Inverse folding.
């Protein structure tokens, strides 16, 4: 392999292989991070669902913009812009980009909780988003 080629490969790897990420990778990553703080931690979709729908001392919950049903489109409370469904089963783009997931967790957690989300909170909510699309309808 010529040197220029290997540099291109290195650059591509450093840029972050967004195409290689799947929703389950994020669940595994956040769960492992949470376990490093509490060895008995196990992600819970039902806990994630409750957390997603609850307010945390501020005016908004995650469902304020994303609705309570992650398989449906939401709407930004301030700008009125439509937001595509959050559940990977309803929207295959979701939870496939580390950059997007990190950016939006940071921003939305500050808006909703007034702080960054913990790894445990992220693991639970990702478990809920993965589950949610699989059981659409479900009484709602
Ligand atoms: C003020 C409105 C608003 C609130 C409240 C909100 N979000 Fe979002 N969220 C957005 C917008 C806008 C985007 C980016 C647009 C898009 O991806 O369609 C987004 C994107 C995301 C993404 C990116 C998903 C991906 O695969 O790229 C995640 C994860 C997310 N939000 C989680 C949350 C969580 C968790 C909460 C509650 C703590 C929350 N959001 C609350 C507006 C909101």
């Amino acid at each position: 392999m010529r040197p220029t080629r290997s540099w291109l490969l290195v650059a591509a790897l450093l840029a972050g292989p967004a195409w290689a990420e799947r929703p389950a990778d994020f669940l595994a990553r956040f769960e492992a991070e949470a376990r490093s703080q509490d060895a008995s931690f196990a992600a819970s979709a039902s806990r994630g669902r409750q957390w997603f729908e609850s307010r945390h001392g501020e005016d908004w919950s995650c469902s304020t913009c994303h609705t309570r049903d992650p398989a449906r489109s939401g709407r930004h409370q301030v700008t009125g812009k439509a937001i595509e469904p959050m559940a990977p089963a309803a929207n295959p783009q979701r939870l496939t980009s580390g950059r997007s997931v990190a950016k939006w967790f940071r921003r939305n957690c500050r808006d909703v909780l007034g702080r960054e989300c913990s790894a445990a909170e992220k693991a639970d909510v990702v478990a809920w988003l993965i589950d949610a699309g699989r059981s659409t309808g479900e009484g709602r």
